[in-house]
Write a structure and sequence with these properties.
Helices cover 41% and strands 17% of the residues. By secondary structure, the chain is of the alpha/beta class. It has a five-stranded parallel β-sheet with strand order 3-2-1-4-5, with helices on both faces. Strand 2 (37-43), helix 3 (55-65) and strand 3 (72-77) form a beta-alpha-beta unit. The longest helix has 17 residues, at 100-116. The relative contact order is 0.18.
Length: 178
C-alpha cells in the first residue's frame, strides 16, 4: 500500500469535548471501526464558547475513556481544523449529527472547509438513537443543578462533575422547596 493510501485510512474527529459525552464516544467508536487510525482533536480554545473544563482535563477524560481503542489517539489543536487534519495527514474528518440544527451548522462548515482544503472529505455519522438528545451543554446544565449524569457521560466525567457540583451549583437550592 502506498504512503498516500495509508493516510486515506486516517481520520480526525475534532471537537471541543467540553465534556466528552457518550454520544461523542459512540461516534469515535464507529469511526475507529471504519478507519485504521483515528485522531480525536480537542480544540484548545474554542472561539464560539467558554469551556468549563481545561484542555488538559478534556484530554484526560478522552484518554481514559478511549484507552482500550488501540487505533485512537488524542491530540490538541489550535489551528484551522483542516490544518489539523493535514498535520496528521488525514483525508477525512468524521463528525456526528444529532438534530437538524447540527446539520445546518455542519453544512456551512463543510462548505468553508471544502474551499480551504478540497482534498479533505467530511463524513457525517448520524447519532445513535439512545444518544441523539445528549449535548455537552445539556449535560453541564443538569450537573450544575446536582442532577446525575452517569448515563450521559463516561465515568471520569461523571466523577469530576460530582466533585465540582456535589449539591448543585452555588446559589442553586439543594431542596426544591427551599
Amino acid at each position: 500500500m502506498s504512503d498516500d493510501a495509508d493516510h486515506r485510512l486516517t481520520a480526525i474527529c475534532p471537537g471541543a469535548y467540553d465534556p466528552v459525552t457518550l454520544g461523542h464516544v459512540d461516534v469515535i467508536r464507529r469511526a475507529a471501526a471504519i478507519f485504521h487510525h483515528v485522531v480525536v482533536g480537542v480544540v484548545r480554545d474554542p472561539h464560539h464558547k467558554q469551556t468549563l473544563f481545561t484542555v488538559e482535563e478534556r484530554v484526560a477524560f478522552l484518554e481514559e475513556t478511549l484507552r482500550d481503542y488501540g487505533n485512537v489517539e488524542v491530540d490538541v489543536f489550535s489551528e484551522l481544523v483542516v490544518d489539523f487534519a493535514r498535520r496528521h495527514r488525514a483525508k477525512t474528518m468524521v463528525k456526528g449529527l444529532r438534530v437538524i440544527a447540527d446539520f445546518e451548522w455542519e453544512f456551512q462548515m463543510n462548505r468553508l472547509n471544502q474551499m480551504l482544503a478540497p482534498e479533505i472529505e467530511t463524513m457525517y455519522v448520524m447519532s445513535s438513537p439512545q444518544y441523539s438528545f445528549i449535548s455537552s451543554s445539556g449535560v453541564k446544565e443538569i450537573a450544575s443543578f446536582g442532577g446525575k449524569v452517569d448515563e450521559l457521560v463516561p465515568p471520569p466525567v461523571a466523577r469530576r462533575f460530582e466533585q465540582l457540583f456535589p449539591d448543585g451549583r452555588p446559589g442553586a437550592p439543594v431542596h426544591p422547596d427551599e
